[in-house]
Amino acid sequence: MFLEQGIKEENKFSKYLMGTVFIIMASFFGQLPMLIALLYETTFKGKVYPSSDQELMHFFDPNLTLFFLLISFVFVLFGIYFVVRFLHQQSLLSIITSRPKLDWSRVWFSFGIWSVFTIVSTLLFWFFSPSDFVLNFKLIPFLFLVIIGTLLIPVQTTVEELVFRGYLMQGFANLSKNRWLPLIMTSGIFGLMHIGNPEVAKLGYVIMVYYIGTGLLLGIITLMDEGMELTLGFHAANNLIGALLVTTDWSAFQTNSIFKDVSETTVGVDIIIPIVVVYPLLLVIFDKKYGWTNWKEKLTGKIV
Fold first, then answer.
1. Does 268 have pLDDT greater than 70?
2. Model pTM above 0.90
């Protein structure tokens, strides 16, 4: 069983706190390439150092900014491997799935179904509200975006899943010896990690409902499926296809996408519908395909 793979007497919760600090340090090291580039541009080319996140997002070419944002996750990936392998004496696979090896068919199924949903929903928004979008497509920058996004966005989303649905979920399971606390804690922390995103400043804290709800969805999927292959596919599709299709001047990812959303964005039903309609429907699809059973026990039961 997935959570049980990390349940060891020597896996005290203090170890997970130490590991989390190490992973955060790896993230800081991963930000050095952008810092070095910033210092070079401001010192030798006379550019003004950005005084806000908004200015930072527009300081470099969008593709270069995206590269700098994503390359830090490569450092974090190595940090996670080091912590899991040497601090906890576990394999990386043990915080990914309970299956003998990674089930790529699950990853691709989840990636495919969420890619289709993202593309169709975006095209419907564009069809019914064409004035909210402008064509942003430029072939060469878009091709570079495809290359950078395809190589690094899955790294970013995989790292986030390894941290929240893998490492921390097993950590809170060691602490509580039940399933509901890891689910609640990782969902809440996942949401709070997005509190610094430009979307929150633009739309207000109510959008945290979406982030926490998404964390809850991914946690439920992981516990019900005894592994995070489905969440790996979902998260990669959500970020990659979204980055390729639409950008805004205020989103966390500034990309050379096909469309730019120029609407006066406000929080409305588009935030609530995924939580109360789309996500439950996705759970039903996964349930039917993979034959999930014993929901109450898997989501709230004790760990023996």
1. no
2. yes
